[in-house]
Amino acid sequence: MNGEQSMRSRRYASLSIDYLTTNLAYSAVLSMLPIMLTQRVGSASVLSGVMLGVLSAAARGSTLFLGRLIEKISTLWLMQISLAIIVLGLVSFAWLLQVSPVFALLGLMLFGVGISLVNFTLRGHIIATTADSKEQASFFSLATLSANLGAAIGPITASYVQCRLGLANFLIIICLIYAVISVITGICFDRHVYLRTSDSPSEEKTSILSTIGTLLSSRRMLPVLLIVVTGSVMNGQLFSGMSLVFHGFSSDLLPSGLFFTVDAIAGIVLQFPISRLVVRIMDTGKTSTYCMGLSLGLYGIAFVLFAAGTLMQSVWFIFAALLVFASAECTYAPLTNVAMVESGENMPLVDILNCRLILTAIGESIGSFCGGFFVPFLTSAFHATWMYWLALSIIAVCGLFLMYPKGNADK
C-alpha cells in the first residue's frame, strides 16, 4: 500500500511540475512573441499576424495528423521528442527571424507542433495510467491548477527577464527550462505506457471523420460532445469579446491586464475546493458528464453578471463575473477528458483524445469569432453589448439541460 501511495505521489508531483513549467515557458514565449515579431517585421506587417496564426493552429491541432506515430511510441519518449522539437523550433525561429522572417514560420510551426504533442501526451499519460474516473478528475484538477499557475507566472517572468537580460538570453533560459522538464520526465515517467493498448480488439486505422461519426451516433456520447463544444465556446470569449470589454474599462489605475490576472488567480484559488466538490458529487453516483454539465450553469451565471456589468458600466460586476467564470473553467476543464473517456467506453484512447482536440478547437474558434465580431458590431451599432452576453448565458443554460437525462439515467 505504501508503495502504491509513493508511486501515486511521485506521479502527482512529476505531472504537476510538467504542467507548471511547460505552461510557464509557453505563456512567457507568447507574451514576448509580438515584441520579437514587430521589432523584426513591423507592427503593420501581415506576416506578423500570419506567424501568430500559424503558431496557434500548430499548437492546437497538429497532433491530429500524427496519430499513427503517437500510437507506436511510449509516453516517455513522446515527451522527450516533443521537448526536443520545442527547443529546435525556438532556436530555428530565433535564427531565421534574423536571416529571413518568412522562413521563421518553419521555426514557429515546429514550436507549435512540440507544444501540441506535449499537451496531448500529458493528458494521455494521465488517462492511460489511472483507471478510476474520480482519480482522473483529481489528476486533471491538479494539472489545471498547475497550468493556471504557470500561465500567471510566465508573462511576469518574461517581462522581468527580457528587460534585464535581453531577448537572446530570454530564449536561452526558456530552452533551459524545457531541458529541465526533459530530465524530470526521464526520472519520473513510467517507461512502458502507450496511448493505444496492444490488447485493443482491433488495431485498424481509424480516421478522424469516422471516429466523429461513431461518437455522434452514440446516444451516450452525444450530450458529452455538445457540452464540450458549448463550454469551449464560452472559454473562447476570454481573449476575444471579453478582452475588448476589459480594454473599455481600462485606465492608468485599472490596466486591462488586471482582469486577466483576476481570472488566473481565481482559477488557482478555486481549483482545489471545486475539485473536492466534484469528487463528492461523483461519490453520490453522478457521472463526470453530469458534473461537467454543471459548469455550463456557472458560465450562464457569469455572463448574466457580465451583461449587468457592461449595461451599468460597473467594474465590480465584471470582477464578480470573472470569479464565477473562473469557477466554471475549474469545473469544465478537468472533466472534458474524463467524461469523453467514460462515455466512449471501448473506443481507442487516441481517437477520443483527437476528437477532444477537434471539439475544443471548433468551440473556441466559434467563441473567438463571435466575440471578435459581435462585440465591436454591437458597440458600434447600439453602444451596448449586454444583449450578446445575455444570449451566451441563455445558450449555456440550454446546454445545461443536456446533462439531466444522462445524470438521471446513470447510477
TrEMBL record:
A Pfam family in this protein? MFS_1
> Which keywords belong to this entry?
Membrane, Transmembrane, Transmembrane helix
Give TM segment ranges: 12-37, 43-65, 77-96, 102-122, 142-161, 167-189, 224-246, 258-278, 290-309, 315-335, 356-374, 386-404
Q: Which InterPro entries match?
A: MFS, MFS_Exporter, MFS_trans_sf
Q: Has UniProt tagged this entry with the keyword Manganese? A: no
- Could you tell me what this protein is called? MFS transporter
**Known PANTHER family for this protein?**
QUINOLENE RESISTANCE PROTEIN NORA
What terms describe the molecular function in GO for this protein?
A: transmembrane transporter activity
